[in-house]
Design brief:
With 335 residues, this protein is an alpha/beta fold. It is 31% helix and 24% strand. Bound molecules: iron/sulfur cluster and magnesium ion (MG).
Length: 335
């Protein structure tokens, strides 16, 4: 498969009055054409900052310090603002957690749907309107024609998220980045939006990066998963690797003890005791060590390297070392 995006050793920091917060600390992953990839982890692990770095929408205090993000050969970190403006909302689009803050309350849904088409695609008003109706139909909004002249407050939360998805797909983007697209919605609506995303994934060729704290959500949609912790990708593999052969103690914690293949897909992220690391002073060793029930002395001293579990499956956890003690539910290397 051809790569659409190749992120290599990306570092992003925030320079605050108390010092440098190292929010993303050298992450590497890629996305193939037409593929959905998950970035999973607790809040504060760096997943949203990764997205904001790729789209260059970081707050003024944030800066990509190092690394690259090649999008069809163009480095999103280095291209001019002008070039980025052409890519954002056009070739790469995004969906955020809270549709209400992303929709403009003073413009009709029709206006907001047509805006990117007029701007990026230079469509006539007539064609843009036609396409807007098609888009609303695509995301399952009934009476699309009539809905165009309504305002965001006239839509329910679930319907607003559908509109956001329609807007994100307006320009037929090559890549869609969805940051916690279902988190702000109630459970039944969450399931509907997820079903919609799955359905769309089969209909359109757009690649997706799905950012979530919920393993159930990625299991449904993504073929490959990156588990993030403390600004790093701690485990990376196919959905099968992550769910059936978790090789990092943090992933194991997320899955909750021994994975049960029958209930796995419905498994939700289990809270793990303790706090994520302070990224003002990131630990020298494994960032998960203070919360890890399997932590060994070496874990606190030295950042674990990536252990190659199988092709495309790697994990930065000493439990994969041949001399490490055996842990129930953990397979990793050579077990
Ligand atoms: Fe736990 Fe050590 Fe693995 Fe980190 S490297 S997750 S502390 S066992
Ligand atoms: Mg976030």
């Amino acid at each position: 498969m051809e790569k659409l995006l190749k992120v290599n050793n990306l570092h992003t920091s925030f320079y605050t009055h108390v010092g440098e917060v190292m929010a993303v600390r050298g992450i590497t992953f890629d996305v193939e054409k037409g593929e959905a990839v998950g970035l999973v982890g607790e809040s504060g692990c760096g997943k949203s900052v990764t997205m904001m770095s790729l789209l260059r929408i970081l707050a003024d205090t944030g800066k990509v310090k190092e690394g690259s993000a090649l999008f069809e050969g163009r480095d999103l970190v280095k291209i001019s603002n002008q070039e980025m403006l052409k890519i954002r909302g056009n070739e790469i689009s995004m969906i955020f957690q809270d549709p209400m803050t992303s929709l403009n309350p003073v413009f009709t849904i029709g206006n907001q749907l047509m805006e990117p088409l007029l701007r990026h695609k230079r469509m006539t008003k007539h064609d843009a309107r036609k396409k807007a109706v098609e888009l609303l139909k695509l995301v399952g909004i009934p009476e699309a024609e009539k809905r165009l002249s309504q305002y965001p407050h006239e839509f329910s939360g679930g319907m607003r998220q559908r509109v956001m998805i329609a807007m994100a797909l307006a320009c037929d983007p090559k890549l869609l980045i969805a940051d916690e697209p279902t988190t702000a919605l109630d459970v039944t609506i969450q399931a509907q939006i997820l079903d919609l995303m799955k359905e769309l994934k089969n209909k359109i060729s757009t690649s997706i990066i799905l950012i979530t704290h919920d393993l159930g959500v990625v299991a449904d949609l993504c073929s490959r998963i990156n588990v993030m912790y403390g600004g790093k990708i701690v485990e990376q593999g196919t959905k099968r690797d992550i769910f059936y052969n978790p090789s990092h103690a943090y992933t194991l914690g997320l899955l909750g003890s021994v994975p049960n293949p029958k209930t796995l897909i419905k498994e939700r992220l289990k809270p793990i005791d303790g706090q994520p690391p302070d990224l003002l002073k990131p630990p020298e060793g494994c960032p998960f060590a203070p919360r890890c029930k399997y932590a060994m002395r070496i874990c606190e001293i030295k950042m674990p390297p990536y252990f190659e579990i199988s092709e495309g499956h790697r994990a930065a956890c000493y439990l994969n070392h041949p001399y490490a003690p055996k842990v129930e539910g953990f397979k990793g290397r050579g077990r």
